[in-house]
Amino acid sequence: MRNSTQSGRLARKVYLFLLPSLAGTAVFVLLPYVDVIRRSFFEAAGGRFVAMQNYLTVMGNRAFRLASFNTLRFLVICVPLLVVVSLFCSMMIAGL
């Protein structure tokens, strides 16, 4: 019984330590991200609701499509390579 009480207290302390970080993340990362998505449905100058028109305009831009393709290609090549190299390095270090 004593261990469960201590583990409950420990869990509460852990959550209390994490709370400021989670609150900061919500305020400085998540809320601005949600605001950007909301604003993307409005005209930049007039603030008039334009629905998906901004997205259609961007998708029609050849430079944007090229940049998106390059980013996707970079992601598909570099992320798996980074994981494999990192795993190899950690295995080498652990083997020492």
What is the CA-CA span between the terminal residues?
42 Å
Low-pLDDT segments, ≥5 res: none
Anisotropy-based shape: flat
Question: Major beta sheet, specifics?
Answer: none
Counting H and I runs of at least 4 residues, what is the number of helices? 3
User: What pattern of helices and strands is seen along the backbone?
Assistant: HHH
Helix content: over 70%
Mean pLDDT over the full residue set: 92
Strand content: under 5%
Textual characterization of the structure:
With 96 residues, this protein is mostly helical. It has one domain. Helix content is 82%, strand content 0%. The chain contains three helices and no strands. It has helices at 2-39, 53-59, 62-95. It is flat.
Question: What would the keywords be for this entry?
Answer:
96 residues; mainly alpha; 3 helices; flat; UgpAE/MalFG_permease
Quick take:
The protein is an all-alpha fold and 96 residues long.
Layout of strands and helices, then pairs:
Elements: H1 2-39, H2 53-59, H3 62-95
